Description:
Keywords: Hydrolase
Pfam family, one: Abhydrolase_1
Strand content: 5-15%
Strand order of the largest sheet: 1-2-4-3-5-6-7-8
Oligomer: single chain
GO molecular function: 3-oxoadipate enol-lactonase activity
Number of strands: 8
Structural class: alpha/beta
Enzyme class: hydrolase
Helix content: 40-55%
CATH class: Alpha Beta
InterPro entries: AB_hydrolase_1, AB_hydrolase_fold, AB_hydrolase_sf, Epox_hydrolase-like
CATH topology: Rossmann fold
Largest sheet: 8 strands, mixed
Mean pLDDT: 95
Number of helices: 11
Radius of gyration: 17 Å
Order of helices and strands: EEEHEHEHEHHHHHEHEHH
Amino acid sequence: MIQPVAERTPAGTSYLVTGQGQPVVLIHGVGLNKEMWGGQIVGLANDFRVIAYDMLGHGQSHLPAADTPLEGYADQLAELLDHLQIPQATVIGFSMGGLVARAFALNYPQRLSALVVLNSVFNRSPEQSAGVIARAAQAAEQGPDANVDAALDRWFSREYKAANPAQVAAIRQVLASNDPQGYHTTYSLFATQDMYRESDLGSIQVPTLIATGELDQGSTPAMTRQLAARIPGAQSVVLAEQRHMMPVEAPREVNKMLLDFLSHARTLTESAKGIVA
């Protein structure tokens, strides 16, 4: 596969495109960037046109205004699709990217062909909310790397960290190098918007997969099941023994799950259009 070269939209969104076929968009989490999706880009590009981009305030994309709401992040994705002349796409969001994917599904339903939410949040308990809000405040005061060690301990297994020190160090560097304002704006939304338009989730009418890892402390299996229960026909999957960064730590397992779902979603879509009896 030819290594894709980053490009930019007129509004300043940095993105990569590779592969051929139906478009699949990948949205990273807070403090990360499009590079986190290397394993999925390789795994999906033989069958799909894969688009990975940097969220507002991350990577090489432009900064959001300090008061940008979650809808602004959905608008960024719509502008990217307009730039690429893509009327509809499957959207896969990880963690904060899962919130953006949900916002996109609710605000641009006509642009969505299927939805995947990985390791994201829904209906936090008061204790969970207090914890993430405290971490957001700490990062606002001390910078994006204020709680990086604790984050990496939550995100990765000890075995993976020990076997892949260079990759973990690279992710640490990405987290530490974030623009403070862009990081704070995004993290504040991640900390407070887990129930974003929750009463409207039943309006999502596309094939949907909600998945997390069995050992994900912040994006728990209970959250995954509760969110899936709000979306008609949504599948919920919990990958055994996986933590938060399962797209990075277990790309083959995650890719198999995604490819199985995308094949199922394509069949459902074609059947609905009368192409398949």
